[in-house]
Amino acid sequence: MSENRDQNTAEALEQPPVSVMPSFAMVNGAPFNKLPDDLYIPPDALEVLLDTFEGPLDLLLYLIRRQNLDIVNIPIAQITHQYIAYIQIMGELNLELAAEYLVMAALLAEIKSRMLLPRQPDAEEDEEDPRATLIRRLQEYELIKNAAEEIDQLPRIERDIFEVGVDVSTLKNVEQNLPDIQLKEMLLAFQDVLKRVEQLSHHQITKEPLSVRERMSTILENLKGADSLLFSQLFIRKEGRHGVVVSFLAILELSKERLIDIIQSEPFAEIRVRTAGTAGS
């Protein structure tokens, strides 16, 4: 029974395989497989034949997938015939073939020959399919090829994504327009400071005479070490109501002389004071 099966397999392999010749182009919807005899092609006029393959495994995988063949059950005789036909066409067109293409052709011929040999009855179960090694190589190559194609589809810098650079040295500082502060808001802030002073415990102290000009100098000195200060930070509570009034008058005088800016980040926010001309620094 085994001998009959081997004989039938050998006869099937010896039959001329159904080959699909690689076509040069499609003419009126039909593949154009043969060049006209009177067609003149200058030497080295054609450098690439149809698809560009990255190696013999790539060519084999193309032949298998083009015909929707099962990669684990390759019709070795049919694929070998097509592969060799493709190699011959490339040779006729004077295209240089890498040695690995010829090595693969020899390997396919060897596998085909081994499959034609009758199997020994006692070694039928243990003998490995001659195509097994080639199938494993094709499967591994296909996995790597598919992974490479997926990676190639990812966004790539200088192809899909372009970095944008801005020379910040040419940008000018844009001063934010702050809301105007009304005198009413200044008075409300002043009243708040007075209330805090009144909450302090009263005790008898000897008061030194306070000068508005001296307080103006003190405020300017305090502002030198900071970008800005809260309005309430410019008052010294322990000086009492008299000291608060002197500080308030000093602030108004400094603002009048354009030595300080009285600012507010937004309506109803806390009032701040800064040295004039320090915006954006």
TrEMBL record:
GO BP: cell division; chromosome segregation; DNA replication
Chief subcellular location: cytoplasm
Annotated keywords: Cell cycle, Cell division, Chromosome partition, Cytoplasm
Pfam families assigned to the protein according to its UniProt record, in alphabetical order: SMC_ScpA (PF02616)
Compartments, as annotated in UniProt: Cytoplasm
The keyword S-adenosyl-L-methionine appears for this protein: no
Function: Participates in chromosomal partition during cell division. May act via the formation of a condensin-like complex containing Smc and ScpB that pull DNA away from mid-cell into both cell halves.
Family per similarity comment: Belongs to the ScpA family.
Protein name: Segregation and condensation protein A
Species, as recorded: Methylobacter tundripaludum
